[in-house]
Design brief:
The complex is a heterodimer of chains A (about 240) and B (about 400). Chain A is an alpha/beta fold. Chain A is built from 10 helices and 10 strands. Chain B has helices at about 10-25, 30-65, 90-100, 135, 165-170, 210-215, 220-225, 235-250, 275-300, 305-315, 320-350, 355-360, 370-400, 400-405, and strands at about 70-80, 105-120, 120-130, 140-145, 160, 180-185, 190-195, 205-210, 230, 255-265. Classes of the chains: A alpha/beta (about 240), B alpha+beta (about 400).
Chain lengths: ~240, ~400
Amino acid sequence: MSLLRLDEVTRSVRLPDDETLEILKGVTLDVEIGDHVSIVGRSGSGKSTLLNLLGLLDAPTSGSIWFDDRLTSELSGNARDRARARGADIGFIFQQFNLLGGRTALENVMTPMLYASGRQFWRRRQFATEMLERVGLGGRLNSMPEKLSGGEQQRVAIARALIRRPRLILADEPTGALDIETGASIMAILDDVAEVSGAALITITHDVNVAALARRHYRLDRGVLAPIDVSRVLSAAPEVGL
Amino acid sequence: MSSTKRQSPLAALVGSFSEAWAEVRIHRTRVLLSLIGVAVAVAAITSVVGLGAIVEQSVQESNESNGGRPATIGVSAYTQNGASFDAALLRTTLNSAVDRYKIRYHTSILSGQLSVQFVAGAALVNTTAIDVDYGVMHRVKIKEGSWFAEKDINRLAPALVVNRPFWALMGSPDLRTHPTVRILGSHPITAVIVGVRAVRDGDMPNMMMLMDAFRVAAEPASYAGQSQFEAWVPPPLAKRVTARLSAELAASVPSGVDVQVNRQDYAAFGADPIGPVRIAVGAVAALVLFLGALGLVNISLVTVRQRIREIGIRRSFGATAGRVFFAVMMESVVATAAAGVVGVGVAVAVVENPWVQEKLSRGVTDLPSFPIGAALFGLAAATLVGALAGLLPAIAAVRFKVIDAIRY
């Protein structure tokens, strides 16, 4: 069943000299529940713009985006609805972890629950504790971000992204700030937790090794999204550019 | 979408408080700095307004001491050629008017010089003859003893209220010993000093005595050409009473005598005499608040970078723009309101301090209590400043695209 579908999506911006810059050109993508998709691309290829669209943070210039078989443009006029949908259905994992400073690991994971309703809101401490235990940080609940290693910080970020049981996880360069070994371990945890929760996982990265962990692979080049055979890329790496 | 369920108002409120509290806890140094700035500003503005009220009262009482309280209507009659006239008719008409218009406070006024025997010798002393009501109408302040009472009218030895130099010439005696002086003249009398005025009106001795006693002690020729009267009426009625009195008195006096009836209190002279004080106080208060606000806004701007990124992260978790706005504003407003309470507390301590009051009031009889308006104004100003200071990062954060804010 299709969870997220992009149909001939374009995104362009008007430059100060009145010219139009087309960042995304006719992007089409279909992501199903439980799917794991990777998108690789160089800097400036349009990855961030695509991430904004996938995360309901921005609206396309043309084309349509369907989430759960519902046209997102129906929500585009209502920022509040989009924010609520984002909080309930989409979990973000950032390259720089983006943990909130001055708050413990537990408080960071509890943060998304502040915007939830019902049980999720009132029992947020219990849910956050359980989620941190799932990612192996049950013993670091009250540790500040600066006291955690890079891998631990990213695990906190994963726990935070998954705490509201989103159906779509968007990981933006999730291993970009980690060494290879830690990155592999993080991806294993992410893949595992996503699979157990049944969420679809879209990983946006420039690292083909990370991209290879997904089931389906795409490359974004100058705004054009196209499927790639990642095994060919890997066999030719590291010289093969993306 | 599986769940775009709206958060309950209670959960939203608890969540916002939780966020605001976490912010205050985490950024306590910044918050404390902001609070100190705001508390000082609020303390300053509230103190200035509170102390200004005392100064205003002081100025007002000084004006009332001279011209009487609003509205004091003065009546004077005189002849064009300076000849004396019989004021009995005038007094009869005035007494009738006082009864008809139910004027509660009124006084006749005469002035002259009487010879008083001091230890060092006799001296001419400026004397004002009045009725008992004069004390209330002119807010006469007494340093020692008391103002005249109705029973003083019947004293065989007339009562005197003297100024400080007069009292000093007598060796500043304890008034409980009923000190007396001899008033010389064709009918010498002994008078008892019942009060010493607080006002510092120069080095020359002067005294006040009740009208009947003055008429006994003074030579009639010395006050024959004078006829002054004052009535204290409610300000809204002043215009009508003035017109009526003017007409009635003009009809009652003999030809050749002119009667003038007009308001003589400070409030009658159009321009607000306290206006300049009020404007000066307001300008200082505004300047102090502006400086406080500037400090707070400055601190807010310095931390805007940090806040924008954090708010971007929150929005990616589903925080609506409204929720972010509310949380940031509440954090700022709650903190500054708390600072405002501290500032008002400091201001109360300053304004109610006896030493400060002594220095500023200079014998104010009706010392104003701490103006509640000033306290409320201080709190409102603190809250407003907090809202304005919170507005900048909140607007900036909401206007940024979420991903741009996270990468800010």
